[in-house]
Amino acid sequence: MKWWRALPLVVGLVASALPAVAAEWVDEWRSLAAKTGFEGHKQFAEMLADPKAIALVEEWQAFRGYTARSLIAAAKLPPDLKPGLEITRENAAQYPWLKDYLPAPSLARLMSDGWFRWGRIRIVPTTPYTLSQARLEATKKGGTYSISEKGELLDAKGGFALLGDSGLPFTRPADGLQLYWTFLAFGIGNDNLALKPMELTSCTPDNKPERRYVMHLWWQKMHGRVDSAPFGDIRGENDTIEAGSIVFLAPRDIKGLAATRRRFASADKGDDFRGYVPTMRRTRILGGTDTQDPMTPGIEATWDEWRQSWLKPDPRKFDFKLIGDGFVLSQPEVGHAYNPADHGGSECELATIDLELRPVWILDITDKTGNYVYGRRRLYIDKETWYAQYQEMYDQRGNLWRVLDDAGDFDPAKGLWMARNYVLWNVIGQRYNRISMMADWSIISGDMSGMFDIERLRDY
């Protein structure tokens, strides 16, 4: 064999033997794993060390002009707010800065000795998150967007943007409505999603399990598909932006309860929302007020929260105000490796919750009609992903009602997302919902036809 013919083979063998490309966040995760001895920390560190994951971070950083880490590096932060710090009720007074970064509802759970107690908070490294390479290229090619007086997202030709475009619309939002539309355009972080199973425990104020549910949930993006076949559009879904569906598998008294919901681009066309009630053996067409109801008894999440916030933007009914920005401690998107909310021996309390410092915009959505279930929502929207890191929901009297902090299942090498958990609690009723989700990643290349047909789901 000639030496120049053997050279590619030699180079390939040498390259495969080289360590992963160095990145400071990988080093921080590896150091944390060495300190804690926790396998989940070690697994996530090695996922982040994948050269494909690091290259994706660099490409998104070049497009954005920043990462979460660069924003944090430019800020004046407490020197002891760093990975590996553990905060408990007993030592929290040593960190007077905690109230400036940990939202008040979470701080109250840490300091409480009553319902939904938190044992300890463990700080993990701030990680640069991305979307996929294909979504990045689509976002780079994005044109000019506008928002109609009805709150519809329009492209440069005046058509409904999300029926054709694949990218994110307002990556540098100028106001609250632009920010909310970018949050909505993030969608599910890919084109297909399946959570099988999705398990929920409803807890009483005395930290006792009351009801347990098991569900399967699906979601699909209908247009502008760049990550999963069929690319482009789903046939027959001409005016549908996206759709979701759910089937309850347990307990026995609601087994078979199912719902499907389609979101249309036009503000004048309400969602196609249908539910099958097995005890009645009939399908119901549900209206706008039904989306404000809890999904089933004991569940704090309404149908408008089954994807953080699926409130349809309408400036005639809601005010969207970008009130500022800052940093927030919320759950990391580590679900591809582990669940950051560890309940230990109690389903209704947290033994340990991993939290990560994130740069966010703060968005207030205020009901102007007095007819919505919430008088106001406050969303903390991540500056890297344009998705919600944390959410507070207030009743019509202005009282804090519900709080939601979720964790994603993020694949660093591909920039694709699913869901891992909801930590969701009712401040007024002192009730907690533990929601754990297992992503079915086979759905990325799977067939989802019929999964949003209520008549098919009734026989699931």
How would you characterize the overall build of this protein?
The chain is built from nine helices and 18 strands. The chain is an alpha+beta fold and 460 residues long. Among the domains are: 133-167, no CATH class; 178-457, outer membrane lipoprotein receptor (LolB), chain A (Clam), CATH 2.50.20. It has a 16-stranded mixed beta sheet that branches. Strand 5 and strand 6 form a beta hairpin. Helix 2 (24-36) packs antiparallel against helix 3. The longest helix has 15 residues, at 3-17. Mean pLDDT is 93; it is low at 1-20. Keywords: Signal. It comes from Zavarzinia aquatilis. Residues 1-22 form the signal peptide.
Task: Give a quick set of tags describing it.
16-stranded mixed β-sheet, alpha+beta, 19% helix, single chain, globular, two-stranded antiparallel sheet, 460 residues, outer membrane lipoprotein receptor (LolB), chain A
Helix and strand layout, with pairings?
Layout: H1 3-17, H2 24-36, H3 39-48, H4 51-64, H5 68-73, E1 86-88, H6 104-111, E2 118-123, H7 133-140, E3 146-147, E4 153-154, H8 176-186, E5 192-203, E6 209-221, E7 240-250, E8 258-264, E9 272-277, E10 282-286, E11 318-330, E12 341-342, E13 350-367, E14 376-382, E15 388-394, E16 400-411, E17 416-426, E18 431-439, H9 454-457
Parallel strand pairs: 2-13
Antiparallel strand pairs: 1-2, 3-4, 5-6, 5-18, 6-7, 7-8, 8-9, 9-10, 11-13, 12-13, 13-14, 14-15, 15-16, 16-17, 17-18
Helix pairs in contact: 2-3
